[in-house]
Write a structure and sequence with these properties.
Blueprint lengths: L1 H63 L4 H24 L6 H22 L11 H19 L4 H24 L6 H22 L8
Helix pairs in contact: 1-3, 1-4, 2-3, 2-5, 4-6, 5-6
Length: about 210
């Protein structure tokens, strides 16, 4: 009888342990499932957050003069192409991106991030001096930087205006080299006309309703 009593009491704790494990298993599975859903749902936000972060870095580079107009135009062309590719992929997949597309976008963003860093640290600067022409060019770059930072200018719009700015900068550089470092009155007037056009385009782009944070 004593042996039987001990046997019965050994079975009771075992039954309690089995029941406890069965009760906790669904909770654990539910927790794991919840984490998986959260991670999957956050991927589009991560892509968007990264795009905005990289645009902020470009805006800072434009504002500080670490990025020239040519460098900015090149970066924004690539950003605009990546944005278009992302939109096309989403439209083809009912508004979502496949895991392969997400990986591809991440690789492209890695490459773009590295180029932003390299361009900002290559020693080329966009400061134009204290003369009237230089001050106006710098002012327009500041307006572009604000448009990028605020999201009022899309990557495509920024690339377009910066490519034009780069062409004017190259023209000014050649004119100065041909005239002993100075611009003639006619060249100044021509540059002023070009800057008037770009100023108007910056204003129109920033008020067009096109948002960069897509």
């Amino acid at each position: 009888m004593k042996f039987t009593w001990l046997k019965k009491w050994n079975v009771v704790p075992l039954a309690i342990l089995i029941a406890g494990a069965a009760a906790s298993a669904p909770v654990f599975a539910q927790s794991q499932s919840g984490q998986g859903n959260q991670g999957s749902g956050s991927n589009p936000d991560k892509i968007q957050d990264r795009k905005e972060n990289q645009q902020d870095r470009i805006a800072q580079g434009v504002k500080s003069g670490q990025l020239t107009a040519h460098e900015t135009g090149n970066l924004e062309n690539k950003e605009a192409n990546l944005n278009q590719e992302t939109r096309d992929d989403r439209q083809a997949n009912g508004g979502k991106l496949t895991s392969g597309e997400k990986q591809q976008i991440n690789r492209q963003q890695n490459n773009l991030s590295k180029q932003i860093y390299d361009d900002k640290h290559n020693g080329q600067t966009a400061h134009y001096g204290n003369n009237e022409v230089g001050q106006r060019r710098e002012n327009q770059q500041d307006r572009i930087a604000q448009g990028i930072k605020s999201g009022k200018m899309s990557a495509r719009q920024t690339a377009n205006i910066e490519n034009k700015e780069s062409a004017v900068n190259h023209e000014i550089k050649n004119d100065r080299q041909a005239n002993g470092g100075k611009l003639t009155s006619g060249e100044k007037a021509k540059v002023n006309q070009q800057q008037n056009k770009m100023s108007g385009q910056i204003y129109r782009d920033k008020h067009s309703g096109t948002k960069a944070k897509q």
